[in-house]
Amino acid sequence: MSISIRQNEVTRHQKALADLQKKHADESKKEASKADEINRIERSITKSTPLSSLRSKQQQITRAMSAVANIQKKKADISKKIANTNGKLHKAQETLSKEEKKERKKIHESEKKREREQLNHQRSITQELRTQYSYNSPVNMMLKRSVKYDAFISHAVK
After folding, report:
1. In principle, which of 5, 77, 86, 113 could form an S-S bond with 1, CB 3.0–4.6 Å?
2. In 3-state terms, what secondary structure has residue 9?
3. What is the pTM of this model?
């Protein structure tokens, strides 16, 4: 797959992880609130509290403790989801890293190939220039100028 797809996957997992952590923090706040409620109710109980009020406060404490247990269960589920999402995020980051490494290697190989082609082109141009220079060298120019004529000169007398 392409790098952009992998980057989107990493971003998606990071967002999901942030959402889960926020939910975990919210549940922790609820748990702390319920614990404060339990403490407040327990402090309101004194030796002079009537029996009917005592039963009512005990029921409130029981409901709050049940709510705390439910909150703790939710937090445990969220923690499990956080761990799973962390694993997926780590895997996605590794995959992205591998894709980026492959892309860098591909670019490097392409660059090396281009450099080799450029060097070969320079060599061929240099060879062509040498060939042209050898044809146009002063010695060759003189040979071209000194044209040999095949002529017959007759010294016949009549």
Report:
1. 5
2. helix
3. 0.67
pLDDT at 130 over 90: no
Helix or strand or coil: residue 150? Answer: coil
Q: How many CB atoms lie within 10 A of CB 20?
A: 20
Model confidence at 78: pLDDT above 80 = yes
The domains of the chain are located at: 3-138
Is the CB of residue 76 less than 8 Å from the CB of residue 24? no
| 123 three-class SS | helix
Percent of the chain with pLDDT over 90: 70
CB 27 within 8 A of CB 78: yes
pLDDT of 141 > 70? The answer is no
Cβ-Cβ contacts under 8 Å for 31 (sequence gap 6 or more): 68, 71, 72, 75
SS (H, E, C) the chain: CCHHHHHHHHHHHHHHHHHHHHHHHHHHHHHHHHHHHHHHHHHHCCCCCCHHHHHHHHHHHHHHHHHHHHHHHHHHHHHHHHHHHHHHHHHHHHHHHHHHHHHHHHHHHHHHHHHHHHHHHHHHHHHHHHHHHHHCCHHHHHHHHCCCCCCCCCCCCC
Residue 16's nearest CA partner among 92, 93, 85, 88 is 85
